[in-house]
Amino acid sequence: MYLCTMDDHQSALVEAGQMLPLMEAFYTIQGEGAHTGRAAYFIRVGGCDVGCHWCDVKESWNADLHPPTRVEDIVDGAAEYSKTIVVTGGEPFMWNMVPLTDALHAKGISIHVETSGAYPLSGSWDWVCLSPKKTMPPKDEFYAAANELKVIVYNKHDLKWAEEHAAKVNDSCLLYLQPEWSRRDEVMPLITEFVMKNPRWQVSLQTHKYLGIP
Ligand SMILES: C[S@@+](CC[C@H](N)C(=O)[O-])C[C@H]1O[C@@H](n2cnc3c(N)ncnc32)[C@H](O)[C@@H]1O
Ligand SMILES: Nc1nc2[nH]cc(C(=O)O)c2c(=O)[nH]1
Ligand code: SF4
Ligand SMILES: [Mg+2]
Q: Which positions bind [4Fe-4S] cluster (predicted)?
């Protein structure tokens, strides 16, 4: 296993958010939530200790496996592809997001983020997708900042838990229920029934997995 060891200079740049452990960056179609179906460039930052047992990107968890990468290099890659970029992970807010979002905004790019909200909010965002997790609940500031709340449904208890989060978000926040991928056949009937009874909620599917794209 290759570990990215950092010298003091790199550690200082990571601390300042001028370098980030980059797992991957790719041009695809947003598969989930309010912007489903729109082409976007994804930046996946390594590092997460939230520990969702069903996480579909566990390879992201160990930040040491992903090379510290200069924000300018990340942004140059992104700007070539799309005017919309989605920052995801891992958990993006384990890192200082100010330099990355400043540099993307300077290029006129619209910036979305996928987050559990477990770490303090940093940077400036055009769209915040909050996907809360039981193991590490969101910081308070995310309930005000969220443009969409996307709750992953693994079993019927998650529907009640979803309503508890909906009570905390701002009034214009869109509400989505997304089946946990391995449990989709079991939970889809629960989700569809719930959404028809509670139409403020909408269904979100991981459409990229059906389309066979990243
Ligand atoms: C991999 S996470 C990375 C961003 C951040 N750590 C978070 O959890 O929001 C991206 C999105 O995928 C969702 N997700 C992860 N594993 C999933 C699974 N097995 N089924 C459905 N959604 C999943 C997360 O809830 C989140 O909305
Ligand atoms: N196509 C596509 N859409 C996505 N929406 C959120 C994703 C994520 O992993 O954060 C994701 C992803 O991994 N791929
Ligand atoms: S918070 Fe996101 S990246 Fe972290 S384990 Fe959960 S789903 Fe995976
Ligand atoms: Mg994904």
A: 48, 52, 55
pLDDT at 2: 76
Domain, as residue range, for 90: 8-211
Q: What is the ipTM of this complex?
A: 0.99
**192 within domain boundaries:** yes
Any known ligand binding at 133? yes
CB 191, CB 179: distance < 8 Å: yes
State yes or no: 95 annotated in a binding site: no
Quote the CA–CA distance of 13 and 10 in Å, as a whole number.
5
pTM, two decimal places: 0.98
Domain count, the chain: 1
Q: Count CB-CB contacts under 10 A for residue 133.
A: 19
**Residue 168: which CATH number?**
3.20.20.70
Which of 24, 208, 209, 210 best tests ligand 2's pocket when mutated (most atoms within 8 Å of CB)?
A: 208
Per-residue pLDDT, 182: 98
CA of 214 to the centre of ligand 4 (A): 8
Q: Is 8 annotated as a binding residue?
A: no
> For residue 11, how far is the Cα from the chain centroid?
24
Q: Looking at residue 4, what is its pLDDT? A: 80
Q: In the predicted model, what is the mean pLDDT of residues 26-38?
A: 98
Residue 19 lies in a domain: yes
